[in-house]
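Write out the 3D structure for:
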Amino acid sequence: MSQVITLGQFIIEKQADFPFAKGGFSRLIRDLAIAAKIINREVNKAGLVNILGETGDTNIQGEQVKKLDVFANDQCIAALKAGGECCMIVSEENDDVIPINSTISQEAKYIVCIDPLDGSSNIDVNVSVGTIFAIYRRLSENGVCTSEEALQSGREMVAAGYVIYGSSTMFVYSTGKGVNGFTLDPTIGEFCLSHPNMQIPENGKMYSINEGNYIHFPDGVKKYLKYCQEIDDATKRPYTSRYIGSMVADFHRNLLKGGIFIYPSSYGAPSGKLRLIYECNPMSYLIEQAGGKSSDGLNRILDLPVNDLHQRTPIFIGSKKMVEKAEEFMAAHSAVEKLV
């Protein structure tokens, strides 16, 4: 019988590989895992209790807030505050940063940027949703963090990950030395190593995009989609279209099987829709650690300057060769635009 390695054991065993990863970092990952277990419990029984549907409120993104969104946000904030290793939180659900002003947290070394429940528009129809997080080291030595400290580029991340709540619940994260996945064993209440050293195939046969918005996409995206749909035996086209509408779910499938996820700019969202700090940056960090690639169509996502807590960006993310091919179409479109 093979040995079961829990998330906690794995972090302790790997701690020596990361000079920054002292006990505080291990506890921070533990705090996120605790929040994930509580959210998972509520997701699994959401249809049985009054936790589905909308609250009637609107978040900073102008989106209707779902009841489970609020619950997930409260649990993440509570776990991070109680743990004492986080000095400031940036959440999709909150307009401003959430400073943690306890005496312990003023000496904490980490800032956590989080999307507590990605794909929440799918909650009511029992489709996989997830939690996305990015971890940064604070810039100041101690005291209360300033909001400017959250505006670090993706290159400055020390760790990133996501939790997917599906047929099984997985905690996937990286500290810059590869990507590892842990599946929740409900019989013991622990995340156990199930997917060590995850690597995305260099190429794939699936593309994920909301083709219902095709008419509003840039010409470069339209031409790439036509390329994906052409018959070509040498490149095994046409590719298969797979779009769930939950970034975590689409990303997770492509990470395992190969593919590309695209959320481009459009007529109604000229800057794209997904947020840079707590969606695109952490997922880009993970995909690069897994051997893939991520860009806004022209530039590496992790190199983009961060100017706003809820900044948006287009994103092309997944298998390296698929992203590079999409970038070729986007670059050609950009060159034509400059000539016009």
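Residues 206-339 form a domain with the D-Maltodextrin-Binding Protein; domain 2 fold (CATH 3.40.190.80).
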